[in-house]
């Protein structure tokens, strides 16, 4: 459940982002215009410190609030690793060091190859990267090397390397954040597709009145609802863990896979055109699926965890390891 | 669509889990896997009476009628325990889930007193007469007809089909036409309580694909019913049935029908060198279950808070029954990687049974296509 402050902030941000992230603007950001004005606005609102405790000068939101925020960022196609930045700042906050108010992307260990990462979603405009060093984290300078839309390979420069004590599963964290952005994005896709089916007519009536189309969009709605719940599971409790985050990533990826296929089927040729806004979501959804552990990767881990858990009942495993709290 | 918040089962509802589990463990001990895999198709009147005695039927009903006055979450806990153990709950299932809440909501004080306490004791069994030979998905086309009599009573003629447990049930609550004609569709339908021991009622069980007999055809020939057979208002049957179906659709019984089988499979896999296909399949099933359960708990909370969630209940049922159907299909697809000494006939009986019955998971309680139609309308497609 979101906290009261969380709900208020989400409401404010929902409006602010709706105004700021117009489809045209998102296209410009995708093409390489840096979203500096948006970033400044977010900094001014204090969003970056959302998860930092109030005692430490932050907003003091809960982990479940972060999940709701990340859904919002997915819904509005925020072109920055904003959820990553909020999570990263919360992780390094106990160190007490001041960290520049710049976009931070979380780099799961598996994404590093000799200084340059594999392509990471939303990394294009990142200035810092949070990397895992086993029993500590480090913030290192990051610069995009090769970008497609908002995804990029980034070069990590350990020159400005700063170490922070503490541990967190960065792969699980990235998986949880991608899951939540995916859920938010899919909900937006559903709304777009329902709208399109009501407006576009063939054979003299709206597409949405054909039963074959209705049945498909109903499945998209189911997948969207399942994705939202899956994402929320990742942010239950007070720490992101691989079990819940894996469930979330696996289920939201599956929802994106099935849901996007339907969205594109219903919108026909225009759906894969640059001009139509669906692609703005499709591209992000595909980026997210390609990052932070695939469906198969997480399925394997969840399956192994079930087999090594002693409970005879899968219900008990789900209740204790994969439920709300 | 209503946003579904992640919801915890409250501690007081969780607190009854150990008691339920102990009672069930005794009841299922010694039952074969294939019998437990029958889930809510398993009929055992003694077990239902024992549950009633332990206060586990009518959990949400008021104590004045023999219920426990507890919340919907308590019922959720009991139901998921029963299903995941494969307890034989068919005898009291429909009365507990649908008939008693229906009578509480729409029945007269006499009707409530006459039936609800006996239902809560696990002694009175009900069945639901909606479908007919000519009316399946198109429920508003029912032809069974009750003619009002001068004394206020009714004379009933017609037939119901696929009525689960009619051969064991004491009463049926049926949707029948009480005025107008078939062309009037939703208007003129009413719900009546039918004492199945009345003269003119004949019940014939129908064998299913697995050789079991649970559903029946029920014929009515000039069956005389008293005036107080009517539940709620004459002509209000459609509205009442719609409310009833929402109760039926989002619960764990739309998710857990294959859990006994899944758990048996997990036990068989332990300690065996496995390929990735089986492990990944298991991971996918566990993840799906975790999400579906969270959705079902969320809807339980919202329904208790008084929200009407027809779309959400429908989408959970569609996803949930899809999961139930995937389990046996995957297990067959993966085959048995186990060495011969670990194979056992009981597992194969259970797998065969669940696979044979699995098409029914997305038929009973409203078919997949009907549910998707409800969802589409609910999100604004016309
Ligand atoms: C195990 C089991 C137990 C049951 N128990 C009971 C019970 O206790 N009481 C009771 O009243 N009934 C019971 N039923 C009956 C159940 O409610 C019906 O099977 C169900 O409503 C579907 O009706 P039908 O089987 O006549 O199929 P039909 O309605 O003939 O449907 C056949 C197919 O056509 C599709 N279809 C129908 N109409 C449309 C449409 N408008 N658009 C698109 N597709 C459509 C359906 O989705 C389905 O795929 C039970 C069924 C089963 C399998």
From TrEMBL, chain A:
Superkingdom of source: Bacteria
GO molecular function terms listed in the Swiss-Prot or TrEMBL record: medium-chain fatty acyl-CoA dehydrogenase activity
UniProt KW keywords: FAD, Flavoprotein, Oxidoreductase
Ranges annotated as spanning the membrane: none
Cofactors that this protein relies on: FAD
InterPro entries found in the cross-reference section: AcylCo_DH-like_C, AcylCo_DH/oxidase_C, AcylCoA_DH/ox_N, AcylCoA_DH/ox_N_sf, AcylCoA_DH/oxidase_NM_dom_sf
Sequence ranges assigned to domain Acyl-CoA dehydrogenase/oxidase C-terminal in this UniProt record: 173-305
Claim: Oxidoreductase is one of the keywords in the record: yes
Keyword flag Flavoprotein: yes
Domain Acyl-CoA dehydrogenase/oxidase N-terminal: 8-67
EC id: 1.3.8.7
Record family assignment: Belongs to the acyl-CoA dehydrogenase family.
Protein name (database record): Acyl-CoA dehydrogenase
Top-level taxonomy: Bacteria, Pseudomonadati, Pseudomonadota, Alphaproteobacteria, Sphingomonadales
From TrEMBL, chain B:
Domain Acyl-CoA oxidase/dehydrogenase middle: from-to ranges: 127-223
Keywords for the protein's UniProt record, in alphabetical order: Oxidoreductase
SUPFAM superfamilies linked to this entry: Acyl-CoA dehydrogenase NM domain-like
Domain Acyl-CoA dehydrogenase/oxidase N-terminal, first and last residues per copy: 11-123
InterPro entries with a match to the protein in the record: Acyl-CoA_DH_CS (IPR006089), Acyl-CoA_Oxase/DH_mid-dom (IPR006091), Acyl-CoA_Oxase/DH_mid-dom_sf (IPR046373), AcylCoA_DH/ox_N (IPR013786), AcylCoA_DH/ox_N_sf (IPR037069), AcylCoA_DH/oxidase_NM_dom_sf (IPR009100), Mycobact_Acyl-CoA_DH (IPR052161)
PANTHER family for this protein: ACYL-COA DEHYDROGENASE, ACYL-COA DEHYDROGENASE FADE34
Protein name (record): Alkylation response protein AidB-like acyl-CoA dehydrogenase
Species: Sphingomonas jejuensis
């Amino acid at each position: 459940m979101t906290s009261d402050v969380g709900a208020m902030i989400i409401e404010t941000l929902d409006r602010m982002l709706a105004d700021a992230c117009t489809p045209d603007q998102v296209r410009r950001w995708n093409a390489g215009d840096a979203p500096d004005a948006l970033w400044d606005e977010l900094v001014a609102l204090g969003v970056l410190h959302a998860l930092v405790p109030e005692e430490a000068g932050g907003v003091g939101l809960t982990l479940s609030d972060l999940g709701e925020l990340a859904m919002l960022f997915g819904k509005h196609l925020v072109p920055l690793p904003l959820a990553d930045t909020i999570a990263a700042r919360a992780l390094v906050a106990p160190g007490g060091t001041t960290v520049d108010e710049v976009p931070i992307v979380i780099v799961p260990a598996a994404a590093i190859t000799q200084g340059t990462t594999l392509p990471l979603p939303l990394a294009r405009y990142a200035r810092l990267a949070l990397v895992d060093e086993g029993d500590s984290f480090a913030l290192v300078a990051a610069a995009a090397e090769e970008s497609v839309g908002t995804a990029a390979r980034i070069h990590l420069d350990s020159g400005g390397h700063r170490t922070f004590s503490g541990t967190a599963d960065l792969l699980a964290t990235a998986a949880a954040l991608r899951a939540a952005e995916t859920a938010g994005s899919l909900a937006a896709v559903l709304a777009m597709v329902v709208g399109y089916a009501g407006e576009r007519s063939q054979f003299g009536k709206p597409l949405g009145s054909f039963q074959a189309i209705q049945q498909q969009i109903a499945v998209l709605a189911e997948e969207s609802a399942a994705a939202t719940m899956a994402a929320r599971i990742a942010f239950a409790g007070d720490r992101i863990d691989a079990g819940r985050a894996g469930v979330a990533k696996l289920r939201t990826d599956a929802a994106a896979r099935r849901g996007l296929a339907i969205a594109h089927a219903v919108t026909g040729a225009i759906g894969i055109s640059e001009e139509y806004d669906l692609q703005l979501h499709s591209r992000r959804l595909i980026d997210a699926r390609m990052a932070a552990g695939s469906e198969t990767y997480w399925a394997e881990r969840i399956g192994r965890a079930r087999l090594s858990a002693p409970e005879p009942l899968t219900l008990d495993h789900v209740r204790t390891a994969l439920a709300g709290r | 669509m209503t946003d579904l918040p992640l919801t915890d089962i409250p501690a007081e509802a969780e607190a009854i889990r150990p008691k339920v589990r102990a009672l069930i463990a005794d009841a299922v001990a010694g039952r074969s896997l294939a019998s437990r895999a029958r889930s809510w198709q398993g009929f055992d009147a003694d077990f239902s009476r024992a549950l009633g005695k332990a206060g586990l039927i009518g959990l949400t009903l008021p104590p004045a009628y023999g219920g426990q006055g507890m919340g919907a979450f308590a019922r959720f806990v009991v139901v998921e325990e029963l299903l995941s153990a494969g307890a034989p709950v068919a005898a009291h299932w429909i009365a507990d889930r649908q008939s008693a809440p229906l009578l509480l909501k729409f029945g007269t004080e006499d009707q409530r007193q006459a039936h609800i306490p006996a239902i809560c004791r696990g002694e009175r069994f009900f069945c639901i007469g909606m479908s007919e030979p000519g009316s399946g998905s198109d429920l508003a086309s029912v032809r069974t007809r009750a003619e009002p009599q001068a004394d206020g009573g009714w004379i009933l003629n017609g037939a119901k089909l696929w009525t689960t447990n009619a051969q064991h049930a004491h009463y049926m609550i049926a949707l029948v036409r009480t005025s107008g004609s078939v062309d009037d569709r939703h208007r003129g339908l009413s719900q009546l309580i039918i004492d199945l021991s009345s003269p003119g009622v004949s019940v014939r069980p129908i064998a299913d694909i697995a050789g079991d007999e649970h559903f029946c055809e029920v014929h009515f020939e000039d069956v005389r019913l008293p005036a107080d057979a009517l539940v709620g208002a004459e002509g209000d049957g459609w509205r009442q049935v719609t409310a009833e179906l929402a109760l039926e659709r989002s619960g764990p019984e739309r998710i857990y029908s294959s859990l006994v089988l899944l758990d048996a499979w997990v036990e068989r896999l332990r300690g065996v060198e496995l390929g990735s296909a089986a492990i990944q399949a298991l991971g996918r099933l566990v993840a799906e279950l975790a999400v579906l359960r969270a959705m079902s708990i969320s809807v339980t909370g919202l329904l208790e808070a008084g929200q009407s969630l027809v779309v959400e209940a429908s989408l959970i049922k569609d996803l949930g029954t899809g999961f139930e159907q995937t389990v046996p299909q995957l297990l067959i697809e993966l085959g048995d990687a186990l060495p011969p000494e670990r194979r056992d006939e009981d597992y194969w009986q259970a797998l065969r049974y669940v696979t044979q019955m699995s098409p029914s998971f997305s038929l009973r309680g409203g078919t997949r296509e009907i549910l998707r139609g409800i969802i589409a309308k609910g999100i604004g497609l016309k």
